Every structure is written in C-alpha cells, then in structure tokens.
Amino acid sequence: MLGWKKWLASLAGVLCVFSFSSLPAKATAYPDVPASHWSAKEVTYLSERGVLKGGTNGRFNKDAPVTRAQAAAILVRAKELSMANVPDPGFQDVPKSHPFYKEIAAAVHAGWFSTAQSFNPDGQLTRAEMAKITANAFDLQGTASADWEDMGKAHWSTPFVERIVANGVTSGYTATKYRPAGVVTRAQFAVFIARGLDPAYRLTVAVYPKKAAEDIFYPQFRDTSGQKDFQYLNEYYVNEGEEMADTKKELTELAKEDPERGHLYTYEASYRVARADRSYISIVFDHYYYTGGAHGYTSLSSQNYDVRNAFFMLLGDLATKADYERKVIDRINTQGAYLQKQGRGDWSHLYSLGGYQRQFYMTNDGFVVYFNPYQQGSYAAGIWEFKLPYSLIR
C-alpha cells in the first residue's frame, strides 16, 4: 500500500459505535427495546436470567442513567452473589433500611466497590466506575495499553479500562476517546454486563488507539479469544503512525518558511472503526492538512484487512461476481446524478474503478465507496460516499 508520504505526494497533484457481537437479536419483553435495538440481545439475555428488571411503567427505560446502587444490585444478581451474613460496610448514606442495602454490602465485601465514609447510592455510574466494577466482578485479566485522547495514563481507572478493553467489553466511546466521566445508561450497562458474564457477547476483536504525535492516532488490535495473532497488522499500523508523525514534523518545518500563515499550518489524522470481527477489519482515516492557500484539505483513506487470510484487500478481492465493477459503477453514477439534482454538488460521471480499488470501507451490513475532493467533483462538493449492499458484488 502507499505510504503516507506517497499518499500526500499524490494528494498534492489534485490541489476525514458500535461494534457488535455476532449473536442474533430477538424481541424483548420491553416495548422500548425492539429487536432492532443494538442492546436487544443483551437485555433479553439478562432479563431471562433475572439479572435485569423493568420499571414500574413496564418499560426497560433503556436511556435512563444507572445509579451506583442499581449497578451494585445488577452485578450481585449477575454473579449470583450471596447476601447472607455480609458485614455492614458502614456507609453514612446507606442505612440498613435502604432498598439496596444488602446488594451494596455484598458488592463492597466482594471488593467490587471501594470502602469509604459514603457510597453515593443515587449517584450516576460513570464509565470509569463501570470499568472498575466490571473488571473486578468478572475477574477480567489482560491489558490493552491505549492512548485515549481524553484520559491520561495517570487516571485512576486506566488499569481497569485496559482490562475491559482487552476482553472485548468495550472499545471506547469513540475510536480514540473513552469518556471516563460519561454517564452509563441502562442499555449500555446491560451490554457491558452481558459481555462480562458470557464471552459469546463480547467484541471478537478489541481495537484501541495509540498516539504517534499530537493529533495523530492509529489503531492496534487484539483477538479477545486469543485465536488470532495480529502482530503483522499491529506492526503495519505502528509504521503508518510513524510515517504520519514524520509528515507532521515536516509540515512544522515547512511552516517556518511562511512567516505570515505558518502558524496555521497543521496536519491531523484520526481514525474510526467501520468493522472489526474475525472475518474483516476495516479502518477509515480522516485526514486534514493546511499548508497555506485559501483553504485546507480534508480527505479519507482506508484499509480493509482479510483476517482469515491475513492480507489487505482491494475491492476486487471482496467481490465474487464477475460483473461487479459495472454494477458498482452504475449504482454510483445513479446515486451521484440524483444527489447532484438535489444540490449536493457537481458529480463527474464515473467510468472505471481502476484507480479507486482501495477507496472503500466495510460495515456490518454493506460497503462504502468514497471519492475525495477533486476526484469526481469540485472541492466544494466535498467527499462523496456511496453505501452499497454486499449483494451487489458477492
């Protein structure tokens, strides 16, 4: 594949969550959690086990925040932890008359929550707190040393976050942000608990960020079952990160030659995970750089990796139908012409995919072919993205 320097050179010539487990979903007992909802299978699984209970309104209240007391109760039920003869934790704000006193006492005695003068039972559970109690309750081992944009290594929850990421309980709030102070909803907590309780619900591939330079991030991978070795893939992205960091350094030096606008020069690169499972991994990079002139330049690049056969794919490698290229071109031109009529911008008729075989990314239910500014239209038209069904090519 082209390195970043070659990519930038070609660019100059024309002058940027959820991962899912594989278990099927079925209708839940709650009207606010239909089978199509991303948490449906986990909510159903835990409800059938008696771990989760709905509200008095008959709904699950999926978007409501989880309190610390509720989290303790859910974990105790999930682990079937005995509440008999448990010592009084001595919290000032959790009297023995509290509806979740026994559950809180049992959870603290098990070491899932810390001891202190108060427990804050009605406080909303944060993602940092979720990481700690989930890692402890399910005795999750292993680490995934991530460089989160919004959480430094010194953060108290880092060791716990590394454990739950390594085990496929979460992949972060976004690809590069963990959001430690973010509040956990009931739907989210259901997913986290199901993944902690049963490996079948976990993410099969853990993806976590590493920082190559300021505003430069790249992904690393870990098979949560230990079946696949991602050493080659990880080394590839380490090298890509180094090249992107070098590009940023070169741009910094270039900025010194422009006393008027040099302080505006920048190069940023972040990524998103379009798909990550034991079949395919698809990563999309968003690039932005400015080197003077009227405007900066935003573009996409992507890599699509065949996990089973360990190689980076072209669109033709994904296709199994002999006439796939004509079908893709016709569909894209039809959509492009329609979008042009809707005021999206001028679309230049596409005749071949020859130069665009790498310009696609995969999702769980289809693939997206994209074109950067100037490739099939003007700069003002921006990036064109066309989502297509897998049935079109295979």
TrEMBL record:
Domain SLH residues, every copy: 26-89, 90-143, 144-207
InterPro entries: Cell_Envelope_Struct_Comp, DUF3298, PdaC, PdaC/RsiV-like_sf, SLH_dom
Gene3D superfamilies in alphabetical order: Fervidobacterium nodosum Rt17-B1 like (3.30.565.40), Heat-shock cognate protein, ATPase (3.90.640.20)
Keywords: Signal
Pfam families hit by this protein: DUF3298 (PF11738), PdaC (PF13739), SLH (PF00395)
PROSITE patterns noted in UniProt: SLH
Protein name per UniProt: SLH domain-containing protein
